[in-house]
Amino acid sequence: MNYIEIKHNPFSIETQFFVNGQEVLGNNILSHLKQRRLQLWVDQLPKLLYDFFNQDSNIEISFIGLESDYIDLKEEIEKANLEHRTNFKLTPYFPVESVDIRLEKIKGMIEFAKKNPKFFSYLQNNSKVSDALNEAFNNDFDAYVVATMSSGKSTFINAMLGTDLLPARNEATTATIAKIYDTKSDTYYGNRYNSDGEILEENIILNSEVLNSWNDQKDTHTINITGPIYGMKKRDNVRLVLTDTPGPNNSRDESHARLTMSFIQDSQRSPLILYILNATQLGINDDKNLLELVAKEIKKGGKQAKDRFIFIVNKCDEFDLEKESLEKALDNVRAYLIENGIQDPLVYPISAFATRLMRNDEQQLTRRERSKKNDYIDQFLEDEYNFIKYMPLTSKVAHKVENLKLIDDDELNTALKNSGIPAVEMMIDEYIEKYNLPHRLNRAKEALDTAIGLALNEEQMNAALEQDEKELENILASIKHLEAKRAKGFETASYKAKLKERKNHVPETIQSKIKSLRRGIEDKWSSITNTMQGDVSIDQANDKLEKLEDDLKFKFNEVINELDNAYLAMQKNIHKELNTEYQKYISDIFEDVKDLKIPVLSGLESKFKNFDIAVTKTTRNEIKSRTVVVGQREVKTSKWYNPFSWGNKKIVDVTEEREFISLKTAWDKRGAEIRTQFNNLIQQGTTHITEGGNKIIDMYTEFLTQEFDKKFEQIIKEIKGKIQDKDLRIKAIDQAKSELVWIEKMRQDLDDILKI
User: Fold this and answer.
1) How far apart (Å, rounded) are the C-alpha atoms in residues 29 and 17?
2) pTM listed for this prediction
3) Most C-beta atoms within 10 A of its C-beta, which of 274, 458, 678, 751?
4) Would you tell me the Gene Ontology cellular component terms (predicted)?
5) pLDDT tens digit sequence for 253-269
6) DSSP 3-state assignment of 275?
7) Does 3.30.70 match the CATH number of domain 2-90?
């Protein structure tokens, strides 16, 4: 039996491997895992360990880290043992301090650090530090509810709220974005905003009638709601923000449709997507485009890319399980998702309507609903309607659900759990614990590491002034040399010339992204061309063109979002490269350089407001007519003058003139116009990205000149003053020694909080 210990720290993103108590060092097949998140490689680990131990699968594995990471490891080991008959053994989990407690300790550290004016200046005035801290202590966690028409999206959200707040209406008419912020209050309040973000109505007590009215008003763009989300665990460090998204084919506001798609395409923040499917109408409503978009995001890789999409199969209570097993019905759902490119999907059966009735206040239900509620309680006490046993729950969540006590009434409590939504809520909480909290702690660590580094650098420089007179004279001579170099411009002109050479250059990764978008458009065109063949009736042609218009609008919005993501990626790429070059350029002159700040330029949306993808219906000059056989009839062929022909008959075709449309002709005309729109979109997107990069370089060049002179004067003046004024120098040295002790204590406390 081989023995290996795995120690994974998700806060510093470091992994150590120990064999027989000795750390595995050097270059080996496990080396590339050490600086990556566990979720990016845990699915590969069984095979890597098998190869590491020379094709021997008799391996005992112990793990030190967070429980959520242990569960992921356990699932992969069990899968390998089942599918490949390996003999991996995972030792029981040994608990470590929770992320919530660590985050609270970090908060305490920062509050303590604010009492030190010099250190506080690094937290406040350095953009890298302040941005990371803002992200670390932003408690809001986004979960977006996405669905096509008639999936029961509003009912699902109301079931999570425990009250009928959202009006039950056709999702196709839900034209606003409603964001629900979970609070501990008992009342729901709301603000209504227009598309410019201006408040139209504020702090209004909400009910379904008010929301219905707000949704119907054309100037309503977004509704922000604060109030309790019934079944969610209340955390001091996390506030769930549940967003009801408009459908992707929403016709009232094109930007809303694109925004819904952007939530799915947001692989940077990786928000949770709750995708609602109607179990009884699978494939009837057109999920295809949306599911293909989800599939693309999942294929980008990593366990988180898969975990952030939870497929919730609603209305499973409507199956007659005496005629069809729920497992078979869920297999059909999985097959449907796989058919749309989503491999091994996480599928959760629920009944939103049943949960809604069981959670709602009896006084708010009609007599018929109260009767139906009792029927549901009886139904969900039956074992075959225990939806929990059909869910891909982790062992941790399964244990929590089993012991969940929501209501004192035991039968109602069991029926409510079995209806599915409480387990989904716990999966949401597990996602928060597994991904959101560790990421935030990692960002807090990055911020404090940077601030500590800046502070150490400053104080070590001051402490280094504790020199004899001769050495101080040497320092002054070096300063004069720097001043002489500055008088010659520090070769700034040649450096700026090199920067200009970088203009009009799009990074390779962005070029590759644009090429991929072009290929995607070409593939779409080939697919459309293949389907637009043959002659059909006018109604059939119009139905085909209407469907085609929806598909093309979806593709157009997808490309806009991808170009927007490419633009943001380009900004980060160039910002990082320029900042690195800036540090290198002046590192031999200044030890402490103010962090390079470049404002984020506007996105693509304004560039593409005037683009229009519309496939018009058939026109009169496209309609042709022809004689077609519509049936047959029997006719007499007898002649009165020929008695031998009397009684003779024959079958003849019945014909009529019918109008038809050539699909190829209709598409060729429209396709040329629309293809021009797509080409313009890619071209203008590429130009926008290029110009955006040029603007950043121009702003950087201007910044370099201004910051260079300003920082030079400041540093030189301070150093000269401390060298030439003995009292000032001694005071700076003493203060630096004291600060270094304080900073070292701060660094040690941070390490203690984050260690596993």
Assistant:
1) 11
2) 0.82
3) 274
4) membrane
5) 667 778 888 899 888 88
6) strand
7) no
